[in-house]
Amino acid sequence: MEIKNILVPVDGSEGSDRAVAEAIALAEACDAKLNFLYVANINQLAINACLSDAILEAVNKAGNVILDRSMEMVPSGIDKEAFSETGSPAVVILDFADNHDTDLIIMGSRGLGVVKGVLLGSVSQYIVEQSKCPVLVVK
Amino acid sequence: MEEGSRILVPVDGSDASDRAVEMGAYLAQQAGFALDLLFVSAFDAGTDAEDEHAWLPSWAAGSTKKKQERVLGRAQSHVPAGMTAVCHSRSGIPADEILKFAEAEQTGLIVIGGGGVSPVEGFLLGSVSQDVVNRSTTTVLVVK
Ligand SMILES: Nc1ncnc2c1ncn2[C@@H]1O[C@H](COP(=O)(O)OP(=O)(O)O)[C@@H](O)[C@H]1O
Ligand SMILES: [Mg+2]
Asked: Is there a domain that residue B103 lies in?
């Protein structure tokens, strides 16, 4: 049993910030690398029909702000990398986990969603059900 | 996880729960946390007594204690030598007892097996882990 690569999907929410903090503690304990992943939900954006360069640029910028903030939380001495992808978050996160030697996914129980009273968000729900690797859901 | 908190691994004797024990033990070791193993049986071992008034059929009551020992013994065998885990058993509805235990015992992380169907009588069916992940106020790690 060894944990060398931890995937942390981040959406900039308070829940994902807590996941980042927990991931840092575990990476420190296990001497593991942290891979942060932000997925721009293009399906949702595509509803607006036209994805102009300006919109794409704004989306990229928002993702980079979120990733930068996560990276900055990591103390020096812990290996880390930031990734940005587009698509349906849950699907892209699982694909990424498969292709990046992931030993553990650490994510928030809630994200930016507005549904009140729900303890587990839809992306987390899907990943807990479908993931082949272990998933830690931070409450 | 907070300093001084404990890792809880609910066990049911399935392969997925064995993997959860290994993961829980590994993290406990790396992070310096204590480890609790918990088996929840549907029947209370107290009804094992050869009490004529026991309402349970003998096949159900008599097997509870043995099953407890078998499941917790099997879980223990997946804890690396040199590490101690504290064994617990409760009776009741598995998800309810797991969540109750976690709230009462300073559990900082629940590590639970998920996905696979239990070869023993369906305790850690996907439904128990799903229920625990959904309702828990404690952080949960689901091992596949
Ligand atoms: N677009 C995304 N990119 C990366 N990670 C995400 C994304 N959306 C959600 N997540 C991850 O999933 C967690 C739970 O979010 P989610 O399931 O979407 O809850 P909600 O329904 O409350 O938005 C977040 O804390 C984050 O870790
Ligand atoms: Mg969301």
From this structure: yes
Q: Which residues, other chains included, contact B143 with Cβ-Cβ below 8 Å and sequence gap of 6+?
A: A134, B16, B19, B20, B23, B111, B112, B113, B114
Q: Cα dihedral angle (B106, B102, B12, A97), rounded to 10 degrees?
A: -90
The answer as to whether B1 is a domain residue is no
This complex has an ipTM of 0.93
d(C-alpha A8, C-alpha A33), whole Å:
10
Which domains are assigned to chain A?
Answer: 5-138 (3.40.50.620)
Token pair, residue A99, equals 């292709």
User: Mean pLDDT, 10 residues at a time, over chain B (144 residues)?
Assistant: 88 93 97 96 60 54 81 97 95 95 96 69 66 95 94
Task: Dig out the tokens for B60 from the structure.
Answer: 């159900």
Which protein residues touch ligand 1 with a CB less than 6 Å away? A 9-11, 13, 15-16, 19, 37-39, 41, 89, 107-108, 110-113, 121-124
